[in-house]
Amino acid sequence: MDLLEEYIKSGRIKLNTHKFHETYTMHDPCNYVRKSVMLYHDDPNNGQKSRWIAQQCIDPSLFREMCDDPMNNLCCGAGGGAWAMPYDAERLAYGKMKADQIKTTGAEIVIAPCHNCRDQIMKGLGKEHKEGRMDMGNYKETLYLWELVSLCLDYEPWSEAEIEAGHAARDAQFERDGIELDEEE
Predict the structure, then answer these.
(1) Residue 46 above 90 pLDDT?
(2) How many domains does the chain have?
(3) From CA 33, how far away is CA 28, in angstroms rounded?
(4) Which structural domain, as residue segments, surrounds residue 111?
């Protein structure tokens, strides 16, 4: 999150805020928000950073908050190995609280910075939602935070001169580092 924040604030990457028009919410992963603050005295603003980054990608007026404070957001139910282990019934039962929280927001997109959380919300809870066994309201998809940023990148294609300069820089680096690539036939 720190790197994405730095790149956005410095202008190193530019984002198009008009690619998404759906309402969205932020899931706060246990490891990135609550656990990192409690165990490692990490930045207590990680939850706010992820929101700020998302709001640089999608119009902030479409954001729907899940709770009063990222430290109070509910676990998705996939942590502690539950996603990777054969505890589907337990994982889904616990995840029902997250599904209800998502439904209450009315959001169509859930942003999840953690891979376990994304898989649980998208592949676990989302599958149950699609099959009609779990109501998540307007929910349509789950995106990683970095995935959202990548989908919203706004860039200009390189000119021929920039392409040539890039190739020259690559070739100089390969020569400096003794890298030889096989020629294509």
Answers:
(1) no
(2) 1
(3) 6
(4) 2-155
